[in-house]
Amino acid sequence: MEQQTPLQKYFAQRVKNVFNHLHDFDLNGDDTSLHDFRVEMKKLRAVVKFLQQVYPKQKLKRPAHLLRAVFQEAGEIREYQLLQQWLEKHRLKAIQEHYFPALRLEQMMMAFRLRSDHYQADFKEIIEHSAPFVASTNEILAEQYFVDLNAHLQEMTNGDLPATEWHELRKRIKQWLYAINWIRPEEAAEKEPSLSYYNKLQEQIGQWHDLEMIRDSFAQKQIYLSQDIDVQKDFNIAAEKLNHSMRYRERQIEEMLSRQAA
C-alpha cells in the first residue's frame, strides 16, 4: 500500500473531525462543538484553497462554494456570541436588551442545529469532490506552496504594513499555520522559531479584528442615534472601552511587526 502524504493524512483527520463535531453539535447544541466545527471548516477551506492553486479553479468551485456558505452561517453565530460576551463583560444591559437580545442567539443556534442533516450532505459532497485531488497531489507541490507562502509572509511583515492590511495578513498567517502540516516533519521543525511569532501575531490581530466587528455592529444598528437615556449611557461607555481596547491592540500589533522588521 502506498504511503500517504502529509496532506492526505491532514485531510483524512479533518474529514473525521468535521463529522464528529457536527454530530456533537446536533446532539448537544453547545458552543464548544460549534467552535470546533468552525475550526475544522477553516482547515478544510485551507486545503481547498491550496488545491485551487494546483488545479483549474472550476474543478473545485462546488466544494469551495459549499464550504464558504456553511462557514458564513456559522460565522454569523460566532459574531453574535462575541457581541453578547463583550456586552455582558462590560455590563451594558441596555444595548444588549434593545439591540442584541440573548433570545436571538438561541434562535440562530437552533436554526443551525435544525440544518445539521443538510450540512452533513454538503460535507459528503465536499469530500467526494476534493478527495481525488488530495490523493493525486504530489507532496512537492505542497512543499512549494508552503515555501511561497513563507516568502510572502516575510515580505508582508518586514515592511510598514498599514492597519487596513492586518486582516489579510492574519488570513495568510492562518494559511501558513495550516500548510506547515502538509510538509515533512523535519522541514516543519526548521520553521519552529517562526511558528510562535506568527501564532501570537495572528491572535493579536484576531482580537483587534473582533473589536472592529463590534464597533461596526454598533454603527450598523445606529445605536448612537438612540433617544433612550440608558442606551445613550451604555453607548458612551462602550465607545470609550472600544477605543481604549483597540488602541492597546494596535500598539501590540505594531510592536510585533516592528520587531520582525528589525
Automatic annotation (TrEMBL):
Record-linked InterPro entries: CHAD_dom, CHAD_dom_sf
Family annotation (Pfam families): CHAD
PROSITE patterns: CHAD
All copies of domain CHAD, residue ranges: 1-262
Protein name stated in the entry: CHAD domain-containing protein
Species of the source: Deminuibacter soli
